[in-house]
Amino acid sequence: NLRRLFLFRSVVIASELAVIGLAVYLLDVVLPVYSMLTIVALYMSFNLLVWMRLRKGISASANEFFLHLVIDVLSLAALLYFAGGSSNPFVSLFLLPLVIVAATLPKRHVWAMAAVTLSCYTLLMVINVPLTQGLAGHQHHGAQPGSDFSLHVLGMWFSFLLGVGLILFFVVAMADGLRKRDKKLAEAREQNLRDEHMVALGTL
Hints:
With 204 residues, this protein is an all-alpha fold. Helices cover 79% and strands 2% of the residues. The chain is built from seven helices and two strands, in the order αβααααβαα. The protein has a two-stranded antiparallel ribbon with strand order 1-2. Helix 1 (2-26) runs antiparallel to helix 7 (146-203) and helix 4 (95-104) packs antiparallel against helix 5 (107-126). The model is unreliable at 136-146 (pLDDT under 50).
C-alpha cells in the first residue's frame, strides 16, 4: 500500500504542476507561483524520501501509513490556500485520503482523517488567497460575469476526472491486494490443518 501511495503521490505531483501551468499560462489566472512551486518542491522531496525508504523493503505500520496521508492532506491544503481556498474546485480531492484510509486502516484512523480533512476544509473557508484572472483572461472572456463560473466548472470537471482516475487506480488495487491476502491466509490455514492431521496420524 505504501508503494501504491508513492505512485499515487507521483501522479498528484505531476497533475499539480500541469494544473498550475494551465491556470497561469492558458487561463491567465493570477497565482503566487513561486510559493506554490516551493510547496510542490517540498512535496516532491518528501516523495523522494519515501522512494528511498521503499528500496529498503521495510513494511510500514498503520500509524506510518496514516502519517503519510496526513502529509498529503496538508500539502493539498497549503496549495489550496494560495488558490482560492474552499472555492477552488480541487477541494474535493480531500475525499481521496479519506477513502484510502477507510479502505485500509482501522476505524480510529478513519475518524482522525475525517477530523483532519474537515479542519483543513473549514480553515480554507476562512483563510485563503482569492483567485483572480489577469487582464488577458478578462479580455479573452469578454469580462463577462459568467467567465469565473465557466472557469470553476472546468476546474470541477478536471478535479472529478482526476479523483475518479485515482480512486479506480488506487482503491481498486488495494481491494485486490486485500483479496489476495485473504486467499493466502485461507490457504495457509488449510495447509496448517493438513499438517496437524498428518502429525495426528503419525502419532497414532
